[in-house]
């Protein structure tokens, strides 16, 4: 059994893990985004170009991942332990899977760098971006929470290039800067001169995307598109778990807050995710539907209400959905949105048909057995069309892009973040600030405005420049009415999507394949001849 022996340099991968955590809310420090990977890359670069050196690099990367994800996602335990002891294995499993990705990154960087004469910056950028791309493409287990590019959410003018390459494109940029700085540091530690070309390249790669973002921030033309009120009823999660009490409390709070919106003063009122914990039927006037219609009539504005939807099936149980309904004074619109990306195990058990699962567990209804929505319908009148993101769908960039491509003027995010903490300050987790930060990147990627209604906060607005405004306090009933802005831009990201991240993932595969070929027979000889020797900072113990 091998030991975690890292040549006395274990603080380097540990430091990378800590710096990565500091780049995200609630800390939101700028410098770590550009230097967090440097210690790990230096550590990897100083390992022998041997099998044992590669596994030391892998173990160092695993240490970085364990610290990074273990601290970043600690809230999974605190948020869910109140409801189930399964929170502990869920947390440990999530951290373990994500840590494996960083271990693969460390192994691959060493493998490629020890065989091919490829700049460390390019290798690191391609492989780190590929790891994030894979995290977002795991089917039911996809969890692209806070990629490196999203760490710039607190500095939207510096993240402006996201309208060209998306948040994962920013990850490629930041990882490249980290790699260039690591190359400089490796040469300095080896007492080798730092070439002027390397220094100039580092400055150019660092400055150009920043300059573009600042220019776009100063020149982007925004226009008002709608006056929107977001309602924050502040129903604690333990109360929401009791269906009868949750309905009574929700109706009381929503009615009171909605009535605080001056009549005819807004174009739309937005309630949070499952604000009404009942099935909303578009074909029959239930008591819940009548109440929402009445409040819409009294406010002289349509209401987007989070509730449960259902689809009947003859001879079988209905399919239930986490949904958003567009309610007008005289009717519930037939156009409603059902959530696509369901929280694993809480809303749907991954990869398992709920009908089969119910034959074993009994009725699941909306706990573990929800249906997955299809389509991305736009709601609202012409010129004020919007799409809805429910809960953590804000972390999936492709859905926001789809809405924009189909003509959305702005977006809504309805969510229930009561899971992430409770009113006492010591019971609040960093997820309360991490979750809404994703919306900054969605706004910049598509240059579109967003309104967010959260059950316990933070409710807020985001403009197409990525700036947030009119934020609500946490764990207080509140209503905010403000203008949502949009642009007439169709960004490169909106048109082409994750082109840079997808290309980086393809490049990562090619680099690993070329590294493998470099040690295989005639093809290996040709590859070594084409690619040259490994970088000088890799030490070989002797002739191969």
What can you see in these coordinates?
The model is unreliable at 1-7, 521-533 and 540-544 (pLDDT under 50). This protein has helices at residues 11-22, 31-35, 38-45, 51-72, 75-80, 87-113, 120-135, 162-189, 196-219, 237-240, 243-258, 287-299, 354-361, 397-405, 431-446, 492-496, 499-517, 521-531, and strands at 223-232, 268-270, 303-313, 316-328, 331-338, 386-390, 410-415, 449-454, 460-462, 468-469, 478-486. α12 (287-299) links the parallel β2 and β3. The protein is globular, with a radius of gyration of 25 Å. The protein has 18 helices and 11 strands. The chain has 544 residues and is α/β, with parallel strands linked by helices. Helix content is 46%, strand content 14%. The chain has a 6-stranded mixed β-sheet. A 5-stranded mixed β-sheet has the order 6-7-8-9-10, with helices on one face.
Give the SSE layout.
Elements: H1 11-22, H2 31-35, H3 38-45, H4 51-72, H5 75-80, H6 87-113, H7 120-135, H8 162-189, H9 196-219, E1 223-232, H10 237-240, H11 243-258, E2 268-270, H12 287-299, E3 303-313, E4 316-328, E5 331-338, H13 354-361, E6 386-390, H14 397-405, E7 410-415, H15 431-446, E8 449-454, E9 460-462, E10 468-469, E11 478-486, H16 492-496, H17 499-517, H18 521-531
Helix pairs in contact: 1-3, 1-4, 3-4, 3-6, 3-8, 4-6, 6-7, 6-17, 7-8, 7-17, 8-9, 8-15, 8-17, 14-15, 17-18
Identify the notable features of this structure and list them briefly.
544 residues; alpha/beta
